[in-house]
Specification:
This protein is α/β, with parallel strands linked by helices. The protein contains 15 helices and nine strands. A three-stranded antiparallel beta sheet has the order 5-6-7. It is globular, with a radius of gyration of 23 Å.
């Protein structure tokens, strides 16, 4: 779904679909044991030369004249990791470097931390992702995955990669697919701001139909291929197969165990998702009364802690009446904004007009920090 949005910017983005999987599953340095050596030699012979250096090099290569100026590569974190409990720490084509102490991946730090890369983590709750993966792994499956392997869920590797990037001074953007489906425009705008490309409405819709882009992974992307936009035209494959979404709990114990095992890593990553804040104002005076954390509200509704029909007045966080207000407007200096955001208990600022009648935007500490870094990239 997110990848389909990127495909709408074909003149600006060269879009790659899971290229590191070539090296992970089929190349001469493959980590995965899913396919036998015989299958890799015969059925997947065209990937024989897909070493980690070659595939990574293609991802990172500079565009030729006439090609899109930037590359969008959608991939799985586990494809750049050795197998669990493996003694492997490097591959012949990409030997580790002295600076790689603590690097859990197969990609040397100098390349993984290349400043030209903007890492984005798109996460999905294991309660949906794991059953979706499990139902496509069985003998004779159109995906070619004839058995299910819980180690391929990938949440552990995703968290390890995220923590390594943060430990080295990066601040990757984390997006949740549930937020993307609920608020596609807002989430896509957030991503576009992060990678510094102008947001365009055409990223949110496309024509239905199979795309050559997904042919390498037949059977895995029917939902995306049949969609007509972000969150549009989706068919619930589990409901289609079992007749009712109420039967989703009828999962094998090993699948339930996998979901449970992945939840901690998912919740950890989700804690870094940018907050979607909905300002609440008085309908008659337009005075700001408070705000609603959309992601938290959604979780509360799904968990049954809040009813669907609950009025906003019961779920909003009200502005304290005992403290004086600080008006943050387009005329506020960056220094004053920084002072405001440094206050205890303040995580964001609502930007209004000088008379506080209209909300113009929202800014967080992270937004200000990133703006300052872009304005002064060589600064401390």
């Amino acid at each position: 779904m997110f990848e389909c949005a990127a495909l709408q910017r074909s003149s600006e983005l060269r879009v790659l679909h899971e290229p590191m999987g070539d090296a992970w599953y089929w190349g001469s340095e493959r980590m995965s044991s899913r396919y036998s050596p015989e299958a890799c030699e015969k059925a997947f012979a065209k990937y024989k030369e897909a070493t980690y250096a070659k595939v990574w090099g293609d991802v990172m290569r500079q565009p030729a004249p006439g090609q899109p100026p930037r590359t969008f590569s959608k991939d799985m974190a586990q494809y750049i990791f050795p197998l669990r409990n493996s003694s492997t720490t490097e591959v012949p084509s990409l030997p580790k470097e002295a600076a790689d102490v603590g690097n859990p991946t197969l990609i040397p730090s100098s390349q993984l931390l290349d400043p030209s890369i903007r890492h984005t983590f798109l996460i999905r709750t294991p309660k949906k992702a794991v059953p979706s993966y499990h139902r496509l792994c069985y003998p004779g499956a159109p995906t070619g995955f004839d058995y299910w392997d819980p180690d391929e869920a990938g949440y552990r590797e995703e968290r390890l990669l995220f923590d390594y990037l943060r430990a080295n001074g990066l601040d990757p953007l984390v997006l949740d697919s549930e937020d993307l489906l609920a608020n596609p425009k807002s989430v896509m705008q957030t991503w576009c701001d992060e990678v510094q490309i102008p947001f365009e409405e055409r990223m949110l819709s496309w024509d239905e139909g199979t795309r050559e882009h997904f042919e390498k992974w037949a059977g895995w992307h029917e939902a995306a291929e049949n969609s007509t936009g972000v969150g549009r035209g989706l068919k619930d494959s589990l409901t289609m197969k079992h007749g009712s979404s109420e039967q989703r709990h009828d999962l094998p114990q090993e699948v339930q165990d996998c979901i449970e095992a992945c939840m901690e890593d998912y919740e950890y990553l989700r804690s870094f998702v940018r907050k979607a804040i909905l300002p609440i104002s008085d309908p008659s005076t337009r005075a700001l009364e408070g705000w609603v954390d959309v992601a938290t509200l959604k979780q509360d509704v799904e968990a049954g802690r809040t009813a669907d029909e609950a009025p906003l007045s019961t779920v909003k966080t009200s502005f304290p009446r005992t403290k004086p207000y600080s008006v943050i407007s387009p005329d506020t200096t960056l220094e004053d904004l920084e002072v405001f955001l440094d206050r205890d208990g303040v995580s964001f600022a609502l930007v209004t007009d000088s008379n506080r009648k209209f909300v113009l935007g929202l800014v967080t500490r992270d937004d200000l920090s990133k703006f300052n870094k872009r304005r002064n990239p060589n600064g401390p």
